[in-house]
Amino acid sequence: MSEPAPITILVADDDADDRMLIEEAFEESLLQNPVHFVEDGEQLLEYLRRTGAYAHLEGTAYPGVILLDLNMPRMCGRTALAKIKEDPELCRIPVVILTTSKAEEDIIRTYGLGVSSFITKPVTFEGLIEVVKAIGHYWVEIVALPPECTDRAA
After folding, report:
1. What sign results for the dihedral spanned by CA atoms 83, 86, 89, 90?
2. How many structural domains are present in the chain?
3. Per the domain annotation, does 53 fall within a domain?
4. Selection from 10, 84, 92 nearest residue 49 by Cα
5. How many CB atoms lie within 10 A of CB 101?
6. Beta-carbon neighbour count of residue 78 at 10 Å?
7. 98 with 14: CB under 8 angstroms?
8. For 151, which DSSP code?
9. What pLDDT does residue 152 have?
10. Distance CA 119, CA 130 (A)
11. Coil, strand or helix: which one is 101?
12. pLDDT beyond 60 at 122
């Protein structure tokens, strides 16, 4: 039996600077997992449903964790989260909110929708590296993920 492929981390964030910083933080943390990016909730759902520009992913494992910004155009993170959690094919994928929001209503609402964790984006790059290291350690090394996040060919 072959070793399963490393889980993919999917980041949904509309801010190009934040995407660049998150990508650099993953590189600095030496995490070897593939990190993919989408720019809004609509792209996120296309990626997960393997439609549109992401149809080529059909039959591949879902991401092992999704890092989701709340405030995005076209479809905000709250709406995308609700759609993911109500979909029987997608609902078990862990979603971690990674946002600038500190609003108690966002924390309460997203946990009510089934988010796995809520993290406020650190204000420094060093803080972001520490968050990324913790996310990588927890979601890649410690947590047992559902089979659809680790091997779709099985």
Report:
1. positive
2. 1
3. yes
4. 84
5. 17
6. 19
7. no
8. -
9. 58
10. 12
11. coil
12. yes
Question: What strand order describes the sheet that includes 35-38?
Answer: 35-38, 9-12, 65-68, 95-99, 117-120
> Does 65 reside within a domain?
yes
Q: Is the distance from CB of 75 to CB of 45 less than 8 angstroms?
A: yes
Contact residues for 147 (Cβ-Cβ < 8 A; gap 6+): 154
Q: Distance between CA 123 and CA 89 in Å, rounded? A: 35
CATH number at residue 74: 3.40.50.2300
Domain membership of residue 85 as a residue range: 15-126
pTM (2 decimals)?
Answer: 0.92
pLDDT tens-digit readout, 22-73:
999 999 888 888 999 999 999 999 999 999 999 999 989 999 999 999 999 9
From the DSSP assignment, how many helices (H) and strands (E) are in the chain?
5, 5
pLDDT digits (tens, 9 = 90+) for 81-121: 999 999 999 999 999 999 998 999 999 999 999 999 999 99
Q: Which of 77, 16, 18 is nearest to 43 (CA)?
A: 77
Which tokens belong to 139? 């979601």
